[in-house]
Amino acid sequence: MRRIYFAAVEEKAGKTSLILGLAGLLEGSVGYLKPVGRANTYRGGRPFDRDGEVAAEVLGLGDPDPLVPLISSDYPRYWRPPEDAWDRIHGSARNDVDWLLLEGREWFGRGLFSGLSDGEIARRLDAALVLIGQYEGEASVDRVLRAAGLAGEALCGVIFNAVSVETELPEVRGTVAPALEERGVAVLGIVPFERRLRAVTMTEVAEALGGEVLVEGDPGAEVERFLVGAMSGDAALRYLRRIPGKLAVVTGGDRADIQSAALSCERVRGLILTGSLRPERSILARAAERGVPVILVPQDTMTAAETAEGLVGRAPVKGEHLETLRELVRESVDVERLEELTARR
Questions:
Q1: CATH label of the domain that carries residue 246
Q2: Distance between CA 251 and CA 246 in Å, rounded?
């Protein structure tokens, strides 16, 4: 049985998606574990990390709760690891599978204060460590090298994820990868950016925000970007027409001018109305006519927008998206080299 720990060089590197894409390409049975999760939503009044649920659904692992044995907080004075933290982690690490794929924390180095960092967890679980990072120039390479130094002998290599085909892919392949290999950091994959994999459904948005659905429309409508509507209606319409992709507008429930402008733009797939302020009936009627979901949420506009934006890029669970993801991983990640490097441990 082999254990591979996937750690993010920076936030939103795409760990979950890569793990799920890779899982379908490995020979033998595959398990999943996220030793320390983060409360990115709530269920029954309790903090909940949705990544475990997504992995359980995609990989057919049953009850998601054991897949994320600990949920952390951003506030150290409010969250200290329970005394049985390591017992929970070890108890959840399955030994009855050929591969155990472990998902790390938000970014490499998170958890040093609590003693539950990626490096420490990987060491205690005797797992090979793979870094996941995006590419934004020289600073990205510096972050990889810094994390590689902290990872030490546990490091197997790095996978660059969501790399722009037009502007970044040639540079990563031609310059960055050879330079890292010269420094002893194996580049195991360079995965191109795929816009379709970043979409989130309005149903998922409503669930994460705890919103009330005023107009159901198409609950499966996919959104790639969330835009805050804080300008005049005319300015909002001009702005919306310039922004590509599938959009959702987040604005106050009393901003009928922006809501009307949003409903006039074909690319707008959803409205998120904030402050628990109900819109005019005419807005709801227009939304229903167009089939645009409308969600009423209690949060202020910026909080709602940030929460919704945080959902973008999370692991796809739909069949066609999952197949696209697996094809990307198959073409972009050197699975044979990964298997070879982990076999040496």
A1: 3.40.1390.20
A2: 17
Terminal alpha carbon distance of the chain: 11
Beta strands in the chain (DSSP E): 2-8, 30-33, 36-38, 41-43, 46-48, 70-72, 99-103, 128-133, 155-163, 187-192, 200-201, 212-215, 222-223, 225-228, 247-252, 268-274, 294-296
Same domain as 244, residue 281 = yes
Tokens of 312: 């973008």
CA-nearest of 245, 296, 252 to 266 is 245
- Residues comprising the chain, all counted: 345
Distant-in-sequence, close-in-space partners of 296: CB < 8 Å, separation ≥ 6: 211, 212, 213, 214, 253, 273, 276, 277, 278, 279
CA distances to 190, 256, 335 from 186, rounded to whole Å, are 11, 54, 13
Same domain, 165 and 48: yes
Summarize pLDDT for 125-160 with one digit per residue, the tens. 999 999 999 998 899 999 999 999 999 989 999 999
Neighbouring CB atoms inside 10 A of 282's CB total 11
Instruction: Assess whether 63 and 139 both reside in one domain.
Output: yes
Q: Using DSSP bridges, classify how beta strands 41-43 and 2-8 pair: parallel, antiparallel or unpaired.
A: unpaired
Considering the domain architecture, whether residues 126 and 103 belong to the same structural domain is answered as yes
Question: Quick check: 224 pLDDT over 60?
Answer: yes
Q: What is the pLDDT of residues 99-129, one digit of tens each?
A: 999 999 999 989 998 899 999 999 999 999 9
Report the SS3 class of residue 132: strand
10 Å CB burial of residue 157 (0-12, 13-18, 19+) is buried
Q: How far apart are CA 317 and CA 54, in angstroms?
A: 7
What is the β-pairing status of strands 41-43 and 46-48? antiparallel
Residues 130, 256 within the same domain: no
Average pLDDT, the chain: 88
Distance of CA 39 to the CA centre of its chain: 13
At 279, give phi and psi (nearest 5°): -80, 175
The reply to whether 165 and 44 lie within a common domain is yes
Nearest to 58 by CA among 12, 95, 18: 18
Determine the structural domain holding residue 102 and report its residue range.
2-194+315-343
